[in-house]
Amino acid sequence: MIISRRPLFIPDFEEEFVAIPALAAKIGRIGKCVATRFADRYVGELTASALVIPRRALAAIADNRPVAQSMLCFDNAVAIGDWQPAALREPISLDITFTHDSPPHDSCDKTCHSTIDADIRQVYELIAEASKTNTIKMGDIFVTPFYRLATPVAPATSLKISLSNSDQAQLAINFK
Asked: For the whole model, what pTM was predicted?
């Protein structure tokens, strides 16, 4: 995991990587067998996040094919932003900006900007499912990625993600 405002060095074990914006929730209390309707009580903090994976792994995920764990679990594969109190309740949106010195693809110029409504219920369902077989503990982090917003990254790419109603980016990463 890498925290916001630190450079992320793109690994050299694959040719192309993508960054996938995500919403992250930090657990604020211990729980077991949490019902979805009560899961909001277990979320202590929220932030913007991003997963960095090889483009090849993204294609396998899209086709429901198995993905080697080494393609998903490597140094700095997850970027976590600055935590905000969970009082940022629904609706939550992520304001996402990618800036490229030399765009890695033709679908955008130097700056790609998008906003997505983040359905917090996905996080609640994930917490409920995980708590069936695991005790969730304070500090556990649940990440819900938005695969359709995957954007190719290359050296000199920067990513900024803000949560709704925030003046500054919770997550700011420079790719090197």
From this structure: 0.86
Spatial distance between the Cα atoms of 66 and 81, rounded to a whole number of angstroms = 29
Q: Which domains does the chain have, with CATH numbers?
A: 2-175 (3.90.850.10)
Q: What DSSP state is assigned to residue 134?
A: S
- How far apart CA 133 and CA 143 sit, in angstroms, is 18
- H helix intervals, the chain: 55-62, 120-133
Amino acid (one-letter) located at 125: E
Q: Is the pLDDT assigned to residue 123 strictly greater than 80?
A: yes
Summary mean pLDDT of the chain: 87
| Of 164, 147, 154, residue with least CA distance to 50 | 147
Q: For 19-43, what is each residue's pLDDT tens digit?
A: 999 999 999 999 999 999 999 999 9
Q: Which residue in this structure is represented by tokens 């369902």?
A: 125
Q: What's 76's DSSP letter?
A: T
Q: Which two tokens stand for residue 4?
A: 């916001």
Question: In 3D, which of 164, 163, 160, 162 has the Cα closest to residue 173?
Answer: 160
DSSP β-bridge partners for residue 50: 21, 79
| Residue 151 token pair | 């954007």
